[in-house]
Amino acid sequence: GTYLDNTASTAFKAVTLTGVNQFISNNSRGLHILSDGIVTLNNINANLNDDGIYINNTTSTPAKPMAVNIGGTNFINSNKGNGFVIQTHGVVTLNNITANFNGIVNTGGYGLNIDNMTSTTTPANVTLNGVNTFNGNYGIGVSIYSLGAIKANSLTAKDSLNDNGAQLQNNFGSSTAGITLTGTNTFTGNSNTNLSIYSFGIITLNNINASNSDNNLGALIDNSLAATPKAITLTGTNSFSGNWFSGLNLSSKGAITVNNVTASNNGVS
What we know:
Largest sheet: 10 strands, parallel
Shape: globular
Strand order of the largest sheet: 1-4-7-10-13-16-19-22-25-28
Distance between the termini: 45 Å
Oligomer: single chain
Radius of gyration: 18 Å
Helix content: under 10%
Number of strands: 30
Strand content: 35-45%
């Protein structure tokens, strides 16, 4: 595929891809980026490779976090191993990510995996804008590990073959950042828990469907280990039905507010 490495720079130089960029059917990673600067990509298609996209700009050091920005509309599908992996100390902002059917050939691989939980300055946020879809992956559909706030819009993670649909965690260190899901969010038919959230901050979710987990929970949402009580709020219309175990499991020391909840036919497999 394409290998871009500017880590020899002593001036934290950026990597930028504009226009429409395609990395298809390579017997290696489709796109492999190593940098100590900001990484900005646009309109990426990385399909049918050994791995789809790997970005690592952690050589900037935790004291100098550099962002990763993905704009446009992006497809990372049917790669043999991982779909899309980001390792950074900086802010991550993604737009319109589709990462489906990854890891099937290798019987192991994520749809999207983001890890930016190592910044030693201000905790770096992770944001997914637009519409984001992670279906039919072998491993976790979408996993995010951060010290900063996690915000995602219209997230779908369905039919993971061997793990959770979505795993969102910022319950690390002294973080107090929250987790927010806006739009309409669907987590159904995954092998393990459909939606798993752990935080030390406020959790606010909207229009959640977490149903028909094959072997575990519909949704597990937990901020009970926060140093001070933090609220959990579910707005919109929410469904947690047909799961192998419980439909909805909320744990908190703070206020819990839920709206329009349906939880039926759970634990009856």
